[in-house]
Amino acid sequence: MGTVNVWSAPTADAPIRAVVPLPGSKSITNRALVLAALADGPSTIRGALRSRDTNLMIDALRGLGTAIASDAEETTLHVTPGALAGADVDCGLAGTVMRFLPPLATLAQGKVGFDGDEQAYARPLDTILDALRVLGADIDGAALPFVVNGHGSLRGGEVTIDASSSSQFVSGLLLSAARFDEGVTVRHNGKAVPSMPHIEMTVQMLRTAGVTVQTPADSGDADTWSVKPGPIAAVDWDVEPDLSNATPFLAAAAVTGGAVTVPRWPAQTTQAGDAIRDILNRMGVETELDAAGLTVRGPGRLTGIDVDLHDVGELAPTVAALAALADSPSWLRGIAHLRGHETDRLAALRTEINALGGNVDETADGLHITPRTLHGGRWHSYADHRMATAGAILGLRVDGIDVEDVETTAKTLPGFVSLWRRMLAGSGN
After folding, report:
1. Pairing of strands 157-161, 224-227
2. How far from 264 is each of 65, 179, 183, 281, CA to CA, in Å?
3. Which residues contact 191 (CB under 8 A, 6 or more apart)?
4. CA-CA distances (angstroms) from residue 350 to 55, 316, 369?
5. Which of 27, 112, 317, 389 fits as disulfide partner to 148, beta carbons 3.0 to 4.6 Å?
6. Which of 200, 240, 314, 352 is catalytic?
7. Residue 1: per-residue pLDDT
8. CB atoms within 10 A of CB 7
9. Comparing C-alpha atoms, which of 189, 94, 171 is closest to residue 128?
């Protein structure tokens, strides 16, 4: 067995006061890359995130025939579409790669093999692969590894899916649909689709690229999205900072009674991470959005919260860490779908917080967290970037927390440890 890397999470001995600039949004970057690869001319993506997930997307698109060049800092990408051909795609643990690229791969001429990390083999993919088969695709397999036998085009049409485990199934079908012969109409049949802001982001970006999209709000047809066939315009994209990646740094102010500012926080956005403002307010934290960015000022003590995170499940690890350090119980609801993420996040959060002396019960659709005095110990990340950052948040208040495999944060935020240390150093800690 290889050596397990362990990081001693630093404890804050004073309120944290810092300005923390953050790189671009993974969600926007990977959607922009897919649209640029299918566009009718060259596109430029500025402020792109460079992380494991986005680099996997770049490598996959290059293998499929798209030319992608970057500037010296690698955050400006120049994308020139090319004829799509057979390739091997490494998905790693990136849901956007394993769910956004199979529809695009149907437009390639040749076999496109998909594989990834061992942990990704358990992630549900049959929903999108079966949907593509209904739309005319030739696919071998129902989970990683699988093969898309591309024939240069896809008929498209109407399909009904159950997207209650991930909004990425809807977004994946919509992103490439303008290039399908008949476009696509996607009907969802099942429990409510989680993470709806991500679908709204997909729709907004498609419309920016000149694609005709009809949503439930347009048609009154609940849980139905349609994309008309047609060209995808080349766009110069400006990527916002990743607001979900910002939440651990904002949480640092909340749990230490300090003040942290994240510059360039957008006044309007479809990113799910923007919901952290309301969540923090409800826990007694002050937030202020102005020209300098978003500033969070922590209170003397945090109040527990009863919150439905169905649409913003990616924030659950940060909110769970905050709740474990609050002064009253919290209920995190609507997040049963997190059992199918990089790991079973509900079981992981319960196990790890309780191992530090906490009191977390897993419910049918979430977590019930009763604060207790925590102690140090090993915090397992489960190769999940958001589990690793949750351990870092707890470490600010609890001495002796050792986070296993903190490098997994490179999935969406390379250099996390350096950013965390700089934040602490700025406060004199």
Report:
1. unpaired
2. 34, 34, 36, 20
3. 164
4. 32, 12, 9
5. 112
6. 314
7. 40
8. 22
9. 171
pLDDT value, residue 228 = 98
C-alpha 274/C-alpha 353 separation (Å) is: 25
Low-confidence ranges of the chain (pLDDT < 70): 1-4, 427-429
77-124 pLDDT, tens digit per residue, is 999 999 999 999 999 999 999 999 999 999 999 999 999 999 899 988
Which own/partner pairs from 392-395 qualify as long-range (CB within 8 Å, at least 24 positions apart)? 392/9, 392/248, 392/416, 392/420, 393/248, 393/251, 393/252, 393/255, 393/318, 393/321, 393/322, 393/325, 394/9, 394/321, 394/324, 394/325, 394/353, 394/356, 395/8, 395/9, 395/10, 395/11
Q: Which two tokens stand for residue 429?
A: 């800690």
- DSSP-assigned letter for residue 38: T
Using alpha carbons only, how large is the chain's radius of gyration in Å?
21
Dihedral pair phi/psi, residue 319, rounded to 5°:
-65, -35
CA max distance for the chain: 62
CB 195 within 8 A of CB 311: yes
User: What Å distances lie between residue 284 and 309, 319, 333, 355, CA to CA?
Assistant: 18, 13, 19, 27
* Whole-angstrom distance, CA of residue 215 vs CA of residue 196: 12
Q: Is 314 a catalytic residue?
A: yes
How does DSSP assign 252-304, residue by residue? HHHHHT-EEEETT--SS---GGGGHHHHHHHTT-EEEEETTEEEEE--SSPPP
Among 180, 184, 132, CA closest to 158: 184
User: CA–CA separation, 298 vs 304, rounded Å?
Assistant: 14
Q: Which domains does the chain have, with CATH numbers?
A: 6-22+241-425 (3.65.10.10), 26-238 (3.65.10.10)
Q: Count the neighbouring beta carbons within 10 Å of the beta carbon of residue 406.
A: 23
d(CA 298, CA 296): 6
Whole-Å CA distances, 229 to 83, 155, 198: 19, 10, 22
